[in-house]
Structure formats: structure tokens, C-alpha cells
Amino acid sequence: MPITKRTLFVTLIVAVWLFSVPTAVFAAVYVYVGPDGSTLITDKRIKKKGYALKRSYKTKPYRSGGRNAPYFAKPIRSQYDALIVNTALKYGLEPSFIKAIIHVESAFDHLAISKAGAMGLMQLMPATAASYQLTTNTFRPERNIDAGVRHMKDLMDRYNRNKKLSLAAYNAGAGAVSKYNGIPPYKETQNYVVKVMKLYKLYKKEI
User: Fold this and answer.
1) Nearest to residue 199, comparing CAs of 84, 107, 104, 121?
2) Active-site pick, 105, 142, 188, 206
3) Helix H segments across 36-131?
4) What's the average model confidence in pLDDT over 75-103?
5) Residue 188's domain is classified under what CATH number?
């Protein structure tokens, strides 16, 4: 079942050094059940009375080459999980959907850059990033994800919450979707939509 704002409260404390130190930094994500039965996902341990640890898992940074990396067909436990959940819910989107996009776009490599110049976790082109006031620190995970999620929200609103059309526009541009009145007949775009939707269904079981 998708997480909603009503059932989930997310706490996230991100250390600045996590994004500046080049060596691998291992982290953990903790999933608690609160006194009222709600779910709390955080990267910090909670010792308050009434909070029961449901599960936890260790994560690690991925420096796999972004879009040029081999495609991973299985879900990945990323150190950005809590950040993804928090940002997706902030803009009313499903965390599992956003995580699937990031998985396919960059394989969770926050320094990924494509041959075309797309940047960061959500692989934003410079013009798209600038339209969401992302002109500096474009590779910082929290800023890159925030701009990318806002972009996806605008696409979802434009296409009446149709995920496949929104993904096609995210990959090929809204102009291409309008031109073909649907998913463009581009092999890359069609494969992209299929990959994200498959991972979205898998991540729905985890997030």
C-alpha cells in the first residue's frame, strides 16, 4: 500500500560531510512504528517511549556511472531512502515511484552526469534544473531530488497523473509526447518507461 502523508511522518537529518567526502560512507535507515501506529522512516535511532523498531537496513553510496552503468533489475537499498520518501511526500507523489526513477536515471550515484549533460541523482538537464531554481550545488542530493520531484509533479499534473506519459515526458520531453500524442516511438524512451514501471511495482512492496 502506498505511503500517504496521513500514515507517514519522516525525520531526516543529513550531514553536510556526507556529500563532500569522496570515500564511501555507509549509513543506515530505520523504520519505526509510533505510538499511534504510524510509520516513521529515519536515518537516526529513536529511543523515545512508544516507538518500536520494525526493521532496519544498512545502505551505501553508489558510484556506478549513472546512466552509463549496467541496469540493475532488483531494488537497491540506498542511503537516500529517507530523503526520497520525505521529498516525494512533500509534493504529493509516491516515494516508490520517485525511487524507481532515480534508480533508472542514476543508479543512486549523486555525481552522475550523462553524455548529454544531465546531472545528479535525477539526471536533470541544465535548463530544466534552472527552471526550478537549481543553478548552484546541482549535485547535492537534497537539492537535486527536490528539483526533480517538482519537475515530475508538474508533469503528473499536466498528464492527469498518468505515470507512463509523465515518464515519457521526463525522458524525451513534453514536446515529443505532444508530437506523437502519447509515448514517443523512441526505443530509449519506451525502454525507460518499462524499466521505471517495473521497479515502481517492486519498490511499492518495500516503501
Assistant:
1) 104
2) 105
3) 81-90, 95-106, 126-131
4) 93
5) 1.10.530.10
Q: Residue 53 in 3-state DSSP?
A: strand
Q: Is residue 85 part of a domain?
A: yes
- Are 107 and 99 spatial neighbours (Cβ–Cβ below 8 Å)? no
Q: What is the tens place of the pLDDT at every residue in 12-21?
A: 333 333 333 3
Number of domains in the chain: 1
Distance (Å, rounded) from C-alpha 144 to C-alpha 148?
6
What's the rounded mean pLDDT across residues 136-144? 95
Is 154 within the bounds of a domain? Answer: yes
**97 Cβ contact partners less than 8 Å away, ≥ 6 residues apart:** 88, 163, 196, 200, 203
Q: Residue 97 is part of which domain span?
A: 61-204
Q: Any idea which residue has 530505520 for its cell?
A: 30
Residues with Cβ within 8 Å of residue 122, at least 6 apart in sequence: 101, 102, 105, 106, 144, 145, 147, 148, 149, 151
CA angle 39, 44, 50 (to 5 degrees): 45
C-alpha cell at 55: 526493521
**Any domain includes 25:** no
Enter the pTM of the model: 0.73
Report the candidate in 112, 109, 96, 69 with the shortest Cα–Cα distance to residue 152.
96
Residue 105 is a catalytic residue:
yes
Q: Quick one: pLDDT band at residue 27, thresholds 50, 70, 90? A: low
- Is 37 inside a domain boundary? no
